[in-house]
Amino acid sequence: MTPALSPITKQAIVMLERAGKKNQAPIWLAASRRLGSPAATKVEVNVGKISRLAAPGGAFFVPGKVLGTGIIDKKVEIGAFTYSATARAKIEASGGSAMTVEEFLAKHPNGSGVRLVE
């Protein structure tokens, strides 16, 4: 039996689904499915992994939590459901931005140029 999702998680899932349907952006539909997945398969990504994948100025979306392990030395835009305090500090120290789901959807409604990181 899976525990019920929190109201905040449900709101983020609905926001992603609506953006995906409205803008015909499959990336947001995929992200909503991953965010609603069971706890055993929740996404947690370290800033070091994002840094390895990133080109300066890139945009990345994590349908889960961004953790602070590793070094990030590139200015990137990251949208995620949650961040650890260390991850947020490292992203902002590198000149990048750590955005909420809502902020990231407002900036990238079509998902064009955004990479989904799991």
Can you tell me about this structure?
The protein is an alpha/beta fold. It has a single domain, classed as Ribosomal Protein L15, Chain: K, domain 2, CATH 3.100.10. The chain is built from 5 helices and 5 strands; from the N terminus they run H-H-E-H-E-E-H-E-H-E. Strands 1, 2, 3, 4 and 5 form a 5-stranded parallel sheet that branches. Strand 1 (about 45), helix 3 and strand 2 (about 60-65) form a beta-alpha-beta unit. Helix 1 (about 5-20) runs antiparallel to helix 2 (about 25-35). The longest helix has 16 residues, at about 5-20. The protein is globular and about 35 Å long.
Mean pLDDT metric: 94
The total strand number stands at 5
Rg for CA atoms = 14 Å
By secondary-structure content and strand pairing, the structural class works out as alpha/beta
Helical fraction equals: 40-55%
SS element count, helices: 5
Concise structural overview:
The chain is α/β, with parallel strands linked by helices.
Could you name the key traits of this structure?
single chain; 118 residues; alpha/beta; Ribosomal Protein L15, Chain: K, domain 2; five-stranded parallel beta sheet; 5 helices
Topology (SSEs and partners):
Blueprint: H1 7-22, H2 26-35, E1 43-46, H3 47-53, E2 59-67, E3 77-83, H4 85-93, E4 97-99, H5 101-107, E5 114-116
Parallel strand pairs: 1-2, 2-3, 2-5, 3-4
